[in-house]
């Protein structure tokens, strides 16, 4: 039985509900960045799936054999399950990857890894569920090396229903190296068109938005050893 479940990630319902629309363009870039991987026979994991939009989009673009989305936010998982249609997806509200079995070919997370307090435990859990040679792609711009993180972190903590740690890029990389992964990274959106929405709570200017997405939003590739 999972012990650390919550109802929602955010105290702001409207913000949580808008994530699918706001993140869809980023999810498309994530899928493109993986390259021409054949997902036909793949078993896919989405860690921190929220309302399930990433796995729905991935299936619509690249048919896979089966997928599991996990999240600790029970209301979000219920909405994900209700919206999956006939796609071969199982959504689970759990904080334990041991609940979902193993044999995954590939795993993803988007803006989730920065909220994980114990990175070494997370890395070990991911390795246990991945096949040897499997890849985990984790995307985030929330890390202490980003110039805007010092202002973002208290803002996120105000509405987050979980604590917000303070990880650096090196902290993330080292945790996965110690778990036996090969670690690599790319500047995730360096060549993508970035929607410019003007000043916001997170981006004082459009230039800040461009800099964050082109320099500080990173896509880690963690490849599991034998």
From TrEMBL:
| InterPro entries in the record | SAM-dependent_MTases_sf
Residue intervals passing through the bilayer: none
Query: What top-level branch of life does the organism fall under?
Result: Bacteria
GO BP, one example? methylation
Say if the entry is tagged with keyword Methyltransferase.
yes
Question: What are the protein's UniProt keywords?
Answer: Methyltransferase, Transferase, Ubiquinone
Q: Which GO terms describe its molecular function?
A: methyltransferase activity
Q: Which Pfam families match?
A: Methyltransf_23
Is Zinc-finger there in the keyword field? Answer: no
PANTHER family, per this entry? Answer: TRANS-ACONITATE 2-METHYLTRANSFERASE, TRANS-ACONITATE 2-METHYLTRANSFERASE-RELATED
Q: This chain belongs to which protein, by name?
A: Bifunctional 3-demethylubiquinone-9 3-methyltransferase/ 2-octaprenyl-6-hydroxy phenol methylase
């Amino acid at each position: 039985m999972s012990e650390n479940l919550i109802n929602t990630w955010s105290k702001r319902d409207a913000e949580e509900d808008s994530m699918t629309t706001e993140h869809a363009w980023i999810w498309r870039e994530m899928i493109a960045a993986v390259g021409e991987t054949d997902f036909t026979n793949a078993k896919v994991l989405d860690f921190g799936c929220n309302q399930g939009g990433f796995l729905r989009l991935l299936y619509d673009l690249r048919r896979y054999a089966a997928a599991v989305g996990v999240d600790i936010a029970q209301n979000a998982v219920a909405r994900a399950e209700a919206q999956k249609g006939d796609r071969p997806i199982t959504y689970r509200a759990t904080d334990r990857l041991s609940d979902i079995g193993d044999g995954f070919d590939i795993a993803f997370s988007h803006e989730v890894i920065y909220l994980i307090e114990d990175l070494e435990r997370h890395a070990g859990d991911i390795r246990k569920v991945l096949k040897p040679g499997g890849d985990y792609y984790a995307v985030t711009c929330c890390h202490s090396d980003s110039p805007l993180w010092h202002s973002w972190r208290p803002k996120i903590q105000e509405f987050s229903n979980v604590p917000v740690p303070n990880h650096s890029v090196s902290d993330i990389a080292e945790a996965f190296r110690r778990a036996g992964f090969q670690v690599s990274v790319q500047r995730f959106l360096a060549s993508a068109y970035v929607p410019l929405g003007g000043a916001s709570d997170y981006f004082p200017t459009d230039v800040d938005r461009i800099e964050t997405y082109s320099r500080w939003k990173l896509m880690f590739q963690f490849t599991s050893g034998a």
